[in-house]
Design a protein that fits this description.
This protein is an alpha+beta fold and 335 residues long. It is built from 9 helices and 10 strands. Strands 1, 2, 3, 4, 5, 6, 7, 8, 9 and 10 form a 10-stranded antiparallel beta sheet that branches.
């Protein structure tokens, strides 16, 4: 019975990774846009949405991949190199693309148009990620002159029943956050495209390199900062405690208690903007994002690593554990 169970667990894991893979979704969306464009649906709202969201998926996947690379400087070098190359390609396409495409078959021109439009949100997200890297580097340099914020730490419960950690978090499901990001990409991608069309004369005079910077500073960066500010306003104080046989989570004034034997799913991510805890079981279904929340004074955003005793307790309760991204994401599931 163990082999079929193992095979099913492997298939389920592979399936989840495929569903959550932005590269796969980007490829499917762009294939749909190409098919619609070749069929004669020239730059209408539907294929345009497919191009914009598909291009953003590729940019999102690339930025995340560079952030996961070790050592981190290799990811930074690759990020810079690809951003520069994409800027150069877009410059070349704007300057000479029309002449080169004129002699190509219609189907090839349709594919080229789809890729050219999809490259706009992809390049914008990559440059926005690069701007985030630069900001982070400047912040680290400034931190050398000031005391560094410390990571939140586990504390022993006064009752002696396990340990707890106090954090600031945002009650928010990842599918809601992802939907908000996709919606913003669609709305402001279309808005930016309409602006480019409306101010075609100015756009041609600016040139592609300066245009990318202007779009990033005028549209992408303010939208990103606005989204972050809106989310941070929902920050509440939270307490997460792992007892001897139960998980206790306080979110603001609400208390949630789940016995380990009733726990069905637990995700614990320690770092990045998506650092969070997700809990399901015994009628409890919650997600608290710590990475985007405003951290307490002198503390960093995120979650500490789980104590070893938690792994032992949950495994004794019949749960299986899966580690991902260098141990930054821990998932407990019940077979």
């Amino acid at each position: 019975m163990s082999e079929p169970t193992t095979d099913a667990a492997v298939r389920a894991t592979v399936g989840r990774k495929l569903i959550r893979n932005p590269m796969l979704w980007g490829a499917l969306l762009l294939l749909g846009a190409i098919a619609a464009t070749i069929a004669g649906d020239d730059l209408s709202i539907f294929p345009m949405l497919l191009m914009l969201v598909g291009g953003w998926c590729f940019g999102f996947a690339f930025v995340n991949a560079t952030l996961r690379m070790t050592p981190s400087r290799n990811g930074a070098y690759l990020h810079i190199g690809v951003a520069v190359v994409l800027g150069a390609i877009m410059t070349f396409v704007v300057e000479f693309g029309s002449e080169l495409l004129a002699s190509l078959p219609e189907s090839v021109r349709a594919v080229a148009v789809v890729l050219q439009i999809a490259a706009i949100p992809a390049t914008g997200w990559i440059w926005l990620g690069l701007l985030s890297r630069v900001t982070d580097a400047l912040t680290r340099r400034d931190r050398r002159k000031h005391p560094l914020p410390t990571t939140v730490e586990w504390e022993r419960e006064e009752s002696g029943d396990g340990s707890s950690v106090r954090i600031n978090g945002i009650p928010l499901r990842m599918k809601v956050l992802t939907g908000a990001i996709v919606g913003i990409v669609i709305v402001f991608g279309l808005f930016g495209t309409l602006l480019l069309i409306a101010f075609d004369d100015i756009v041609m005079r600016l040139g592609p390199r300066l245009l990318i910077i202007v779009v990033g500073v005028v549209i992408a960066l303010p939208v990103y900062l606005a989204l972050t500010a809106v989310l941070r306003r929902r920050t509440v104080a939270c307490v997460i405690a792992f007892g001897n046989d139960e998980l206790r989570v306080r979110v603001g004034d609400e208390d949630h208690v789940v016995a380990f034997r009733d726990l069905e799913f637990l995700l614990w991510r320690t770092r990045s903007d998506y650092a969070r805890i997700e809990v399901r079981g015994a009628g409890v279904d919650l997600s608290v994002v710590a990475g985007l929340a405003k951290p307490p004074a002198g503390r960093t955003a995120g979650l500490p690593a789980l104590p070893r005793r938690v792994f032992r307790r949950l495994e004794l309760a019949g749960m299986s554990v899966e580690r991902a991204r260098r141990g930054e994401v821990i998932t407990f599931t019940r077979p």
